[in-house]
Amino acid sequence: MVGRWVQAAAAQAGRLLVVLDLACQARVRVLCLDDIFLHREPVLMAIEPHSMAWMAGQRGPDRSGESWREVITNWPCLEHVIADGGQGLERGVKLANAARCAQGEAVETISRQAMTMGLDVFHTQRELERVIQRQWKRAERQLETASQADAKVERYKRQGRDPRGVSGVAGRAWRKAERLCDQAGNAQEAVHQITAALSWFDAQGRLYCRQTAPAQLDKASQQLQGDCWNKVKRLLSDERTLNHLDRLRAPLTAAVSEPVLRDAFTRLWYVNDQMQQAPGDACLRLRHLVVIEQVLCERVCPQWQSASRRVDELLRHAVRASSAVECVNSVVRMHQGRHRHVSQGLLDLKRLYWNCRVFREGKRKGKSPYDLLGLHLPSSDWWQLLQMAPEELEQKLLTQQLGA
């Protein structure tokens, strides 16, 4: 009986999500895309990063470009996607752009603007950490080998045996360990430089641009020696890795045309952000720096507060990584452990619950993903929403939209 109840609720959730997804189409401009596997079958995931709204959870049939196109084309207002650079995802974006262009030619009211794609910084940094950890473990193993060779030399001396042969082995082992430690240390320094170049701001609080970030990435990549870094170098050399800077630069220029004033506002935002994370005395020093920056902004532009709010809004909504979809992926994997089989209906039921639940902590505290997306539901309780007929929900959403 419980199984039949769950199946009926899952089917109802699927029907309601059709209505809710249509209501969200105009609100979804950026999506983080990824795929996970449930019992060897892929699930195509799409998350709106600002609201953490789970916009797609399609089970199978595969992760080819054609399957991803079916997911992406459901969002005609989509402007930018962030993904890990998989071949299926990349082909799906190209097919969706081609379909959008053809549809725009047939219907003039549909925009033919191609969506852009940015490589996910999260996966690039994870690959950096994976390789550097492997190098340090290799150096640690060699250090252990050298220590064992030293112990063998001492044992030979205690036994009165000639230690010259094993002493040579120990010397070579220590030289190799030293070389591996130096390589790992240099690579660790390069990883720190790459991580800094993939962020939004440099150490002085200046916003990175296409002229400064690639130069720092190239300089740091030259310190990465060995075939184990080939994948990292390929990701860093891809121009899509820094697409997040291009997407931010254009709206910032439109919001504040004066370069000096724009740099002042971005630095003020950077210092404010650092102040919120700094402890104790450091927070007090940054607070004094914020006051100084505000005085400078006021001298440059008397109406600086309205422009500063526009810059703050743009920087708070800027996205460079698909960590949002990774968060939801971890939730889905946790639920997977509780079921022998996760059907498409059960995924729909979980997606409806996730989008209606209110966050208990963090910067989104007190709001649900649908609230953050700007969709006002007739009821904030997902269970009450599940009792509505799709036609009733569609009518109420349409009435609210007309009233607004």
Give a description of the structure.
The protein has helices at 2-24, 65-72, 87-106, 121-158, 164-197, 213-221, 230-237, 243-255, 259-277, 280-300, 304-316, 323-336, 344-356, 369-373, 382-386, 390-403; strands spanning 30-38, 41-48, 53-59, 80-83, 116-119. The chain has 404 residues and is an alpha/beta fold. The chain folds into three domains: 2-119 and 322-403, Nucleotidyltransferase, domain 5 (2-Layer Sandwich), CATH 3.30.420; 121-237; 260-316, no CATH class. The protein has a five-stranded mixed β-sheet, with helices on both faces. Helix 4 runs antiparallel to helix 5 and helix 8 packs antiparallel against helix 11 (304-316). The two termini are 43 Å apart. The model has no long low-confidence stretch (mean pLDDT 84).
Q: Judging from the principal axes of the Cα atoms, what is the shape?
A: globular
Low-confidence stretches: none
Q: What is Rg?
A: 27 Å
* Gap from first CA to last CA: 43 Å
Mean pLDDT: 84
Key phrases:
single chain, 404 residues, alpha/beta, Nucleotidyltransferase, domain 5, 3 domains, five-stranded mixed β-sheet, 16 helices, globular
Lay out the secondary structure:
Blueprint: H1 2-24, E1 30-38, E2 41-48, E3 53-59, H2 65-72, E4 80-83, H3 87-106, E5 116-119, H4 121-158, H5 164-197, H6 213-221, H7 230-237, H8 243-255, H9 259-277, H10 280-300, H11 304-316, H12 323-336, H13 344-356, H14 369-373, H15 382-386, H16 390-403
Parallel strand pairs: 1-4, 4-5
Antiparallel strand pairs: 1-2, 2-3
Concise synopsis of the structure shown:
By secondary structure, the chain is α/β, with parallel strands linked by helices. Helices cover 64% and strands 8% of the residues. α9 (259-277) runs antiparallel to α10 (280-300) and α9 (259-277) crosses α11 (304-316).
